[in-house]
Design brief:
mainly alpha; 9 helices; globular
């Protein structure tokens, strides 16, 4: 995934989404030391920087810093992000654009990254499904604190079932599942 993102950045070096996505994949691959300065540079240039799925670069950086054991540095990015993510749910524009599910998925990732597992699982129980676009991938390492929790697994099952129903409605085959 990192090599793919390196090629994406090489092809479009001005594309913020690709640059943040590359750093995100570096964190996923365990290369936190290389990812942190890239994310810091993005956020210095643009505090609202986003990656794929509109994942805030501040969330990825805070997650990376938590993985590196630097809680103080993580809090500098994650604390202000909380207000943004949770205030957005009440925003009329978010509702008008139908973006509540995407924002809720970002909230879920945020709570998981912060280690607020019970709050995250309560949110997962209220979510009908995870959106197919505009949110972190449910296999993303940011959700690691939730993996195997019954409430999160139930959300994933609802999401897969809804995705398969939509694919069937469109005349497409269901998505292949790992292990099947």
């Amino acid at each position: 995934a990192v090599a793919f993102m390196e090629r994406a950045v090489a092809a479009r070096p001005a594309d913020m989404i690709s640059r943040v996505g590359r750093a995100h994949m570096m964190v996923e691959a365990g290369d936190v030391r290389a990812a942190v300065p890239l994310l810091e540079a993005e956020l210095t240039a643009n505090p609202a920087a986003r990656g794929y799925g509109a994942v805030p670069a501040a969330l990825v950086l805070g997650w990376a810093q938590r993985l590196a054991g630097d809680e103080a540095a993580a809090a500098r990015w994650l604390d202000p992000l909380e207000a943004e993510l949770f205030a957005a749910q009440a925003n009329a524009t978010v509702r008008q654009l139908g973006m509540e599910p995407m924002n809720a998925a970002r909230q879920l990732a945020y709570l998981a990254v912060r280690g607020r597992r019970e709050e995250a699982l309560q949110l997962a129980a209220r979510m009908p499904t995870l959106p197919l676009y505009g949110a972190p991938d449910p296999r993303d390492g940011m959700y690691a604190a939730l993996v195997s929790a019954p409430g999160y697994e139930a959300l994933l099952t609802r999401s897969r079932d809804a995705g398969d129903a939509e694919r069937q409605r469109l005349g497409l085959t269901p998505l292949r599942r790992e292990g099947k």
